[in-house]
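Researcher: Please generate the 3D structure of the following complex. Treat every line as part of one assembly.
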Amino acid sequence: MRCAVLVFPGSNCDSDLYKAANSVEGLEAEYVWYKSESLDSFDAVLIPGGFSYGDALRVGALAARAPVLKALRGAADSGIRILGICNGFQILTECGLLPGALHRNSGLRFICKTTPLQVVNTDCQFTTGYKKNSVTHIHLPIAHGEGNYTCDSETLRKLEDNGQIVFRYSGNNPNGSVANIAGITNEAGNVLGMMPHPERAMTKWMGSEDGRILFESMRH
Amino acid sequence: MTKGIVTVSLKQNVLDPQGQAVLHSLQTLGFPEAQNVRIGKSIEVWLEESNPQQAESRLQEMCEALLVNSVIEDYRFEIVEV
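Model: Done. Output below.
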């Protein structure tokens, strides 16, 4: 499975994501520059964390209008899997592929720590491996200043009814997000945005290997 | 030449932690009458356009296309001659 790792000016988790994906048997990652106009040769798209465009205007706002976005929308429509992590999640909400928005953490601080999560939906295209391994509670690192997910009550109801909430913070909510949301999919289920970093939890020496299962799930 | 001045604010139902922190500081500094603080931003756009109606319509498009995220933000703007 060929995975595009999108690279914007200011992305800084692209290398981690590239290496994480390439370390999983059956996944083959390749960098794709933000000016690229085609993603046709890929089976999945990974959008890394970082500070694209230095967070100018709003987090993810300028990346969400970059040239590669046209191809990304096409990829989303075609049903291939798209995973946005941290700034990647922010870009997905800014471009409208995911509902809601991410803004300043309720405590104002940038938070960098490993956090417990509940895998709420183990039937989605990114989490079947957790079901197979009977895992519903995992630990992944977070590192963000603007991970406070917000949406109106109507959108929240739809997210809950459709099973679009994939991850929730299970300990203290670190950023004030609505309904403890840490990750959601679109209605079709092929686009996942999440604030925690699975690519930083691939082996035991990283402190957790719970992220590996997510990448492994993407192969099926 | 005209200039559009866009004032962007967080929607009323969106929590503004920055505003709350500033409110707390104001009260600590001896301004107990301060009851609430909301922080927004101001964006100035210089336009090569002399017709104010045309400038207004283009600025509106800019707000919708990029300058404002309507999920969490409200905005208003004015056009001035420069």
